[in-house]
Amino acid sequence: MPFDVDTYLKALDHRGPTAPTLETLRSLHHRHLATFPYDSALNAGRGTALWAGVDIDLDAAFDAIVLGGRGGVCYELSGLFRALLGALGFEVGVFGAGIRQMDGSFGPDLEHVFNHVRLDGEVHLVDVGFVGPSYLEPLRLSPEVQRQHGSRFRVVAADGYQVVERGVPSGAWQAVYRFRDRPRDLAEWQAPSAELEEFARALAGAAILVRGRSFATGQRVLIGKRLLTVDGGQETVRVLTDPAEHERVVADILRAGSTR
């Protein structure tokens, strides 16, 4: 089925206004994260060509994800949402980001694809394709502390980048990812840099699957067997050593939401 706004909104169970306002954007953003999970298993077999399909086939992605109920990777989920927002009259564009790694360094600038919306003179970060933990609702591009469902966020300038930071339970701030404050063109991903290709090879070699889905007050992020849950700003971490439990958690995160 071709891309269809009404069907998309029905899949999101969005019954409120659709005018291009911040209220609409918040509702759609939160519902999208809860409806369509992130699933890195979809990158299996792509090798270093992880971003080859960044300019998505809109109808095919709509059929597989919105109608078929499967998860997606960042550029699929963000591409679909960008099309929806554009159809509703939002001024929407693309950003590229480098995600904070376990050692505190950042990945390449084009590692992650997400969106931004210009609304009432402000830029709002819009990201429905990041596994988390991260923001559930749009985030103003501002160093001011923004609270969402018990969690704290801010966007600060550092070394020529804007850095999305999340307040962790200790009270400290931890980077989520960094990005250049300039719109990106999807063509920039078609000829990946040597740094981006090297990064893709490292990801393929690690072979650790990452899945995630949000819920009303938080997110569940499964990295290999490590399950991180953020609920109302409180975090818990468990290692799923029981294969049956691991299988159940994966199935729950990726549970089908098919509208067929």
Give a short summary of the structure.
InterPro entries: Arylamine_N-AcTrfase, Papain-like_cys_pep_sf. The protein is α+β, with helices and mostly antiparallel strands. It has 6 helices and 13 strands.
Write the layout of secondary structure elements.
Elements lengths: L4 H7 L10 H14 L2 E2 L18 H10 L6 H14 L3 E9 L12 E8 L2 E5 L12 E2 L5 E3 L2 E8 L2 E7 L5 E7 L14 H13 L3 E6 L2 E6 L2 E6 L2 E6 L3 H11 L7
Antiparallel strand pairs: 1-10, 2-3, 2-9, 3-4, 4-5, 6-7, 7-8, 8-9, 10-11, 11-12, 12-13
Helix pairs in contact: 3-4
Give me some keywords for this one:
260 residues, alpha+beta, eight-stranded antiparallel beta sheet, globular
Explain what this protein looks like in three dimensions.
Helix 3 (58-67) crosses helix 4 (74-87). This protein has helices at 5-11, 22-35, 58-67, 74-87, 194-206, 243-253, and strands spanning 38-39, 91-99, 112-119, 122-126, 139-140, 146-148, 151-158, 161-167, 173-179, 210-215, 218-223, 226-231, 234-239. Strand 6 (146-148) and strand 7 (151-158) form a beta hairpin. The mean pLDDT is 93. It has 260 residues and is of the alpha+beta class. 27% of the residues lie in helices and 29% in strands. The chain has one domain (5-253): Arylamine N-acetyltransferase fold, CATH 3.30.2140.20. The protein contains 6 helices and 13 strands. The strands form 2 sheets. An 8-stranded antiparallel beta sheet has the order 5-4-3-2-9-8-7-6, covered by helices on one side. Strands 1-10-11-12-13 form a 5-stranded antiparallel beta sheet.
